[in-house]
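Reviewers of the previous submission asked for a worked example of the structure-prediction workflow described in the proposal, so we include one complete record here. The input consisted solely of the amino acid sequence. No template or homolog information was supplied to the procedure at any stage.
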Amino acid sequence: MPKSGRSMAIGFLFLGVLVFSATSCSQKQQSVQENTAKENTVKINAEQLAKAYGLDSFEQIEAIRYKWNAQFPGVNLSHSWEWEPKTDQVSYEGVDKDGKPVKVTYLRSELSSQPDTVKNEVDPSFVNDNYWLLFPLHAYWDKTATVTDEGMKALPLGNGSAELVSVKYPSEGGYTPGDTWDLYVGKDNRVESLAYHRGGPTKPSLVMARWAGHKKAGPILISTDHLGTADGKPLHISITDVAVKLTGSDTWTKAQ
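From that input alone, the workflow returned the following structure tokens.
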């Protein structure tokens, strides 16, 4: 579903700060009132969102492993991954489009030299699954994405409202250019729901899912349960067996 793989160069977005000056008591009082109003409507940017999911500590991660599972009518998929962010080495275990077992390890920097199965099936699946795993971080890492806060909006599933942070990708480049990921973010800067709008004609065009089951895997926060719909049909994406290995350690720390 997502665009290209993780951008290793880290960029950031920020909000301007308005500074008020005044010379009279009445002007000062008005300034305080205006500032207070603005503080109550602080917008969320990509860095704030990523920090809530462990951005500041991500460099401690030597490797992360997980299983991505998806169930919707007629489909039951599972992909097992191990990813080393510093080297961008990926290990995959699962099946190909014909149902044949596949087990492979490759460097994403050397993708062009890999078999067609890796280039056309495994790596696109890695990007998709990794975005479900770490999208709040990808929204910050991906310098080409435009991140905007659209204000308080009704949740796409269920009742209530949250701050809508929209992440829009360019119309060119990547596996599925033009995608938009709408994140509905609560007061704790955690994503509550997602609405994914595909940029191209491939189905599904619209995926809506809750962002639940938050767990800590070492220093990072991961949403492990996504229940919703894909083009109106029931969808359940879950991320299981999550564990991380920290730099300097040989021990895997399970998410809990």
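Helices lie at 25-39, 46-52, 116-141. We consider this example representative of the routine output the project will generate in years two and three.
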